[in-house]
Amino acid sequence: MSIDTGAARPPQASGAEPFRVMVVDDSAVVRGIVTKMLEEEKSIQVVSSVGNGQMALSALDRYDVEVVVLDIEMPVMDGLTALPQLLKKDPDLQVIMASTLTHKNADVTLRAMEGGAADYVPKPTSSKDLGAGQFKTELIEKVKAWGAARRRKPKRAAPPGGFPERAKVSIAQPAHRPAVPLYAGQVTLRPANNDPVDVIAIGSSTGGPQALFAVLGTLKGAPIRQPILITQHMPATFTTILAEHITRLSGWNAAEGKDGEVIQGGRVYIAPGDFHMVVESKGTDKVIRLNKNPPENFCRPAVDPMFRSIAQAYGKRVLAVVLTGMGQDGMKGGQVLVQGGATMIAQDEPTSVVWGMPGAVATAGICSAVLPLAEIAPQILKISQRR
What we know:
The protein is α/β, with parallel strands linked by helices. The chain has helices at residues 28-39, 53-62, 79-89, 103-114, 133-151, 208-218, 238-250, 303-314, 331-339, 357-363, 373-384; strands at residues 19-24, 44-50, 67-71, 94-99, 119-122, 199-204, 228-232, 253-256, 267-270, 276-282, 285-291, 318-322, 343-347, 369-371. It is built from 11 helices and 14 strands.
């Protein structure tokens, strides 16, 4: 997977105080490399660097921390054990899980995100690969994005005994919505059409797993006959586990798409990591195709090729949804969809972690609705029931 870049607006205003970060890893070498790497960015300050979860809890009493980069496998107290205790001390803390690309760690990471972790970053197995390339770019962008999300929320004073445990599958969003949405002057909505839809297509990136859990969890048991195709920016292994977690949380039959597989209604298909997932018509069937064409928007899988192929295969009978994420992936493919008569909706800015991808489609004038996360599932259900 390649990291997407280029949010719709900078996540931190010029002149703002640096985001305050704690690095938690049992390797002193890793802590040193990650600390040096983060502090090369002027908008980030590492205020604490510790070797296990127990030390992180103690450090949280001494330092004002906004974002924690938390390793999974550590002695004394591992990351998954420390997570709920860190969030009990400060429920607004943004925790980014750092894990190597193994099946076990991917499962632990997704369970951590269900339990309140904000995000994850795949950690190279070799320390020499930590301080450069994709890992560096992705971690810095996610620290800044989640630090900005933290600052959009008013900080709460801890009650006696600490905060209660954070609700599972929590979604980062402010305590209130502005009366006038941000970017309101730039968003022009298209008239909604009333055509039935034969497929639902969703694109997401940063903050996307929790958003997907929330949307599909809300649709649990809903009478939706259409297939749902999802491209979430994630590496291989993680997309396998994402599908398993969606199945467990929502009851949907979710799995990675397989090349040549005939698409069936009422199922969820996830683009596998490092493959673009597209659709082609084969007689009366619609079939999934996987390819390793060059990354688009710096990503593979990418949303644009999925959207373009769906436009060709399904015409106007498409509902497309763009959720939180950095960059503009989904905008060009969304334009192709809408030109063919499809319906497009996007997550609004206040409930997005990063209003890059949904902001791009919203400000391009191709959406019929720009909605807070809690209203997206009801809108999907409403549109899916058209006859």
